[in-house]
């Protein structure tokens, strides 16, 4: 799933870079060329909207432990999209003003164009700053997740070590029990052999006593 999201991210970066470049070119063009560029940017913005919808669906399928990181990244992309739309809207307004001024013979269009350029550069700086902030936040969240993973691994290692210690202790106890049982069994066997020998001696004694008693008669 993450590979699909990253592919969408790459496509998003490519599209937004193209849109930013074209939006910056709109005030510098005129006539049919400018009209075609405006229509082209409008179409690409629609593609970006569809792309963000796909990214949103992908984030919903992300495991819970990773969803926050992807949600933060998607949020930053949506904010960037909003700024692109504002820039484009501003350029279209400036474009409309220029067309109107040209039709009316107004020379004030150049000042509006310069103002649009200044606003465009300011928005680009703000957008870059937000990207850096979003990247820093992602890095912090990634570091926190890595720390949690290391903590969990350390805890699991301690549990495994304790389990091994208990197994060794159990094995030692089983060895002691085995030796005790072996000793007890040996003594039982020895006692049985002794009883058998004593019984055999007693039996011989009785036989001999009977024999000599009969012989003496």
UniProtKB/TrEMBL annotation:
It is found in: Endomembrane system. CDD domains: SNARE_Vti1a. Residues 102-123 are annotated as: Disordered. Residues 117-184 form the T-SNARE coiled-coil homology domain. Its main location: membrane. It is a single-pass type IV membrane protein. Pfam families: V-SNARE, V-SNARE_C. GO terms for cellular component: cytosol; endoplasmic reticulum membrane; ER to Golgi transport vesicle membrane; Golgi apparatus; late endosome membrane; SNARE complex. The chain crosses the membrane at residues 193-214. Keywords: Coiled coil, Membrane, Protein transport, Transmembrane, Transmembrane helix, Transport. One of its GO terms (biological process) is intra-Golgi vesicle-mediated transport. InterPro entries: GOSR2/Membrin/Bos1 (IPR027027), SNARE (IPR010989), T_SNARE_dom (IPR000727), v-SNARE_N_sf (IPR038407), Vesicle_trsprt_v-SNARE_N (IPR007705). GO terms for molecular function: SNAP receptor activity; SNARE binding. Belongs to the VTI1 family. This is t-SNARE coiled-coil homology domain-containing protein.
